Amino acid sequence: MRQPEHDLAPSADGIVHAGETVVGSKGVPHGFVVESSAGACCLVMTRGGDFEGFVGEMGRPAATSGLPAPVKPTPSMQAALGQVAAAHRIALV
Question: What value, to the nearest 5°, has the Cα angle with vertex 80 and ends 75 and 82?
Answer without folding.
Answer: 95
